Amino acid sequence: DGGGKYKGKHQVLTSTATVTVNVLDAQDMPPSFVGTPYFGYIYEVSVPGSEIYTVSAKDGDQGNPNPIYYSIVNGSDGVFDINSTSGCISLSTHPSMLKNELYEIKVKASEVGPNSQPLDYDITTVTVRVVDLNNHPPTFYGENGPQSKFEVTMYEHPPAGEILRGFKITVNDSDQGANAKFKLRLVGPSRVLRVVPQTVLNEAQVTIIVEDASGIDYEKGPTLSFKLLAVEIDTPERFSATADILINLLDTNDNVPIFTSEYYIARVPENSPGGSSVVAVTVSPLLIKICFSQTM
């Protein structure tokens, strides 16, 4: 109050009261997605109906929020569906039918009023990646399908650098990306042959080339055996495949006769009859016998 004197003193008297203001929410805020960005994955083993990702949006008006309905507006390519009330995105086809490795799906969250009238909305992007599983080892193929043994017949001493054209070998890993990367190598007599290429992604024609012709010698052995290995590089499983490489050699006339000794000593009794054997001289691969033609 204005105050005044009371009992000889100037006094101002006051009083207080509490006023509570209740704020009513108005529908003036659009919905918004929470937990963005969104990333989902599809695997080879996924089946139609598999859940990819669930988006979530809330009405910005907290007092009396309206229900939210979800829809896909772009990027589905007809292979994704979304539950309009839960926001769950699912696969509608088999993974083998997918054409892309990456999909960017535009999802719309719409706020619906009391009379089902559409109100504000928000749009977000869900990135879906198709993930390859490393479930296929490298495989060697011949002309008639998968093959684990390859054989060829050839003459000894081919020139260095010659391609062994008798082999028709293809190697393939049907996985994708890093899961299909592997190395090739030959295990056998050192530096006799080499394999090209040495690193393969997905598939390649295998070429075997002569590196050291001195090791391809019929006299050292009529056959040569190798192991052709394909071993994955960047995968934890390190899948591999093995094929036998067998080379049958044909002999060529490339060696002169050789005596088994530099000299021979023979003793002949003086009364030996004609036709008696004097000494046997061996010339690889021949055996020569020297005999008397008359009696001494």
From TrEMBL:
Entry keyword Cytoplasm: no
Classification of source organism: Eukaryota, Metazoa, Chordata, Craniata, Vertebrata
Domain of life from the UniProt record: Eukaryota
Pfam families: Cadherin (PF00028)
Cellular location(s): Membrane
Keyword field: Calcium, Membrane, Repeat, Transmembrane, Transmembrane helix
Parts of the chain that traverse the membrane: none
Keyword Iron annotated: no
Name assigned to this protein: Cadherin- member 1
Classification via SUPFAM superfamilies: Cadherin-like (SSF49313)
InterPro entries for this protein: Cadherin-like_dom, Cadherin-like_sf, Cadherin_CS
SMART domains xrefs: CA
Cadherin domain boundaries: 34-140, 146-259
